[in-house]
Amino acid sequence: MSLLLTPKQRAIYEMVFEQFTYETGVDVKILPRNDSQYKEQLPRWLSPGASGPDVLYWQASQRLFALAQDYPLLPINDLWQQHDMDKSFASIEANLSYQGNIYAIPYSYYHWGLYFKKSVVARYGPAPNTWQEFLALCEKMKNDGLTPIGLGTKNNWPAAAWFDYLNLRVNGLAFHRKVLIGEVSFFDPRLHKVFSYWKTLLDRGYFNDDTANNTWEDIASKIHRERIGFTLMGNFIASKWPPSLRLGLGFTPFPTLGLQPSYELAPTEVLMLNPNSQQVALAKEFLVFIARADTQSLLNSQLGYLPPHNKAITGSDPFIQRGHQLLLQASGVAQYFDRDTQPAFEKLAVPLLAGFAEHGDIENTLRALEQARLQVFVSKSQAIVETPH
Fold it and tell me: Is the domain covering 112-265 a CATH 2.40.30.60 domain?
């Protein structure tokens, strides 16, 4: 049986999959691809009549739903019912179900927040909890000649986290979801308020002035070299720090504004069946293996992520434990901008968010985002728009 995954931490996957081979006698062959190669090839694997791997990696929410809409994905409702997965994955089921069918097994998720070098932030005070505390700390850093916030938008997508978190903090999860499925006009004043908070940071000069020339990895390096105070990133940033240095890396949740409950980002990775597989029975057996609590405990403890299974054991790594507590206490979670919206809108909108991080022009950004929304979501006959109450 073949399994197509991205090549990150391949040895960890192989170690876990060896257990499946031991139990079943079925060999698992991993076909690694980098992120861009994978996304380019995936439609070919899914096209009717194509050949390819039996099990495919993907991402929950709208990205999964878009595939279910465009390709003949195989539902796994039978596995869901036979193995009581509705109980094991109750909190994530809505992000796996499209038009009444379940299409994927969640196997890993991770948290987001502000990462920093502990020794650097300690010079200016404790890590911030509130927006005002964050602003005060950033001001101290700037006055001391340190760039308070690092953002790398060379690949655009890191900028979307700032929109996600500010919209969640200002307007809440339900509104945020409506925005990302095109049901809210970007001329809505509630969205203007979101960009106003972001613009405050830009106007005060808290971000690095070369965002477009940096990747998120570049920013992670600058955090370590004490050239930047904070960065907003997912927990995968911890893997960029050698174990010997990781004790010096700190984490704190995105600051609260006091306007909404604490909603967080928790992108979820999933595995799904290739509809062209010639070994569907074996592929389903593998998905059941991946869905087990013991498998998810082992896999995620090694990856540095969190297991979605509600009876899995969370790893002992401090960042994993912190993320587990954060998401356990959250009032709700979103996936991430590019996973919670249609791919066509993401391609138009995320570069606009990256552009805003450079120029801070609210009106032109909102106008361009609204044009993108109309182009992707709104039919010529009727527009669905939520307006302020």
Answer: no
Distance of CA 325 to the CA centre of its chain: 18
| Class level of CATH domain 2-103+267-329 | alpha beta
Q: Give the residue extent of every domain in the chain.
A: 2-103+267-329, 112-265
pTM of the model: 0.89
C-alpha pair distances (Å), 180 with each of 366, 377, 379, 381: 14, 10, 16, 21
User: Looking at the chain, how many residues does it have?
Assistant: 389
| pLDDT, tens digit, 9 for 90 and up, residues 99-138 | 999 999 999 999 999 999 999 999 999 999 999 999 999 9
HSE-up of residue 225 (Cα within 13 Å, Cβ side): 8
CA separation for the pair 370, 389 (Å, rounded): 20
**CA distances from residue 19 to 31, 51, 272, 316 in whole angstroms, order as listed:** 18, 26, 20, 22
User: Following DSSP, what letter does each residue of 135-163 receive, concatenated?
Assistant: HHHHHHHHHTT-EEEE---TTSGGGHHHH
Burial pattern 252-277, b for ≥16 Cβ within 10 A else e, equals bbbbbeeebeebbbbbbbbbbbbbbb
Give the residues across from 116 on adjacent strands.
Answer: 230, 250
- Cα-Cα-Cα-Cα torsion 90, 91, 95, 100, nearest 10 degrees, comes to 30
Mean pLDDT for the chain overall:
92
Q: Measuring CA to CA, how many Å separate 341 from each of 70, 159, 344?
A: 15, 15, 8
